[in-house]
Specification:
Structural class: alpha/beta
Largest sheet: 7 strands, parallel
Number of strands: 14
Number of helices: 9
Strand order of the largest sheet: 5-4-3-8-11-13-14
Order of helices and strands: HHEEHHEHEHEEEHEEEHEEEHE
């Protein structure tokens, strides 16, 4: 803190105040004596093989919430992909910018499948950008199943990649009910960019008890926390 104060030519109080503001905006994470800017997310193929059984338990619980005839918006990420695998044989409309979800469901004739337009992020198997956001402004979904890089104790939903945040926010606006899918590693997880606060969520589906601080924040916002079946480590 003192080094930053000297380098910037401002008081330690000013540095501290600015770091608090930047953390609230999701641009960094404060640590003892300073702050860190977190790295971007890992490519899809790397994350897809991590905690698969836990993600499947969350996906199965999430799928059980949806009635046939519903419209479902699936976020990018590997947990949304595991959820898509649970939707085969259902009578649903699925909207997504997740290319792996599209590939999973494209041959299932019982599902009306809507692929959002946008810029292709090849390594992350997703579509992003203003075209994706414009598409979402023209659509409505009964359910959004949202992924995350981390959930802060205050209930803030975070992401590691800034470019994906506007799409996630547009998805939230397009949906009646927002369900966050978050395995145990997401509390607190990672993420430098704030997606939304707990007030924007209706439910959280997880596979482990949520820490007390986060649980309190979610309860105060009226968020229902649903625990999927326990998975052996």
């Amino acid at each position: 803190m003192t080094d930053l104060s000297e380098q910037l030519g401002v008081s330690p109080a000013t540095v501290r105040r600015d770091l608090v503001r930047l953390e609230e905006e999701g641009l960094l994470t404060r640590v003892h004596g300073g702050a860190v800017v977190e790295e971007g997310d890992q490519p899809f193929a790397e994350v897809a093989e991590v905690r698969v059984a836990e993600k499947d338990a969350i996906a199965a619980k999430a799928a059980s919430l949806v009635e046939d005839g519903s419209s479902v918006l699936l976020d990018i990420g590997t947990t949304a992909y595991r959820l898509a695998r649970q939707l085969h044989g259902r009578r649903l409309t699925v909207i997504t910018s997740n290319l792996v979800v599209f590939e999973e469901l494209v041959d299932d004739e019982g599902i009306e499948l809507v692929l959002l337009g946008g810029m292709v992020r090849r390594e992350y198997r997703s579509l992003v950008g203003f075209l994706t956001e414009d598409n979402l402004r023209q659509l409505h979904a009964d359910w959004l199943f949202l992924g995350t890089s981390g959930v802060r104790p205050g209930g803030q939903v975070m992401d590691t990649t800034v470019v994906e945040v506007p799409v996630k926010r547009a998805m939230i606006k397009a949906a009646d009910r927002v369900v966050l899918l978050a395995d145990r590693a997401k509390f607190p997880g990672t993420g430098m960019a704030r997606v939304c606060g707990p007030e924007d969520l209706d439910m959280v589906v997880t596979n482990a008890p949520v820490d007390p601080a986060t649980q309190s924040s979610l309860q105060e916002a009226g968020v229902q926390v649903i625990t999927a079946g326990k998975v052996q480590p």
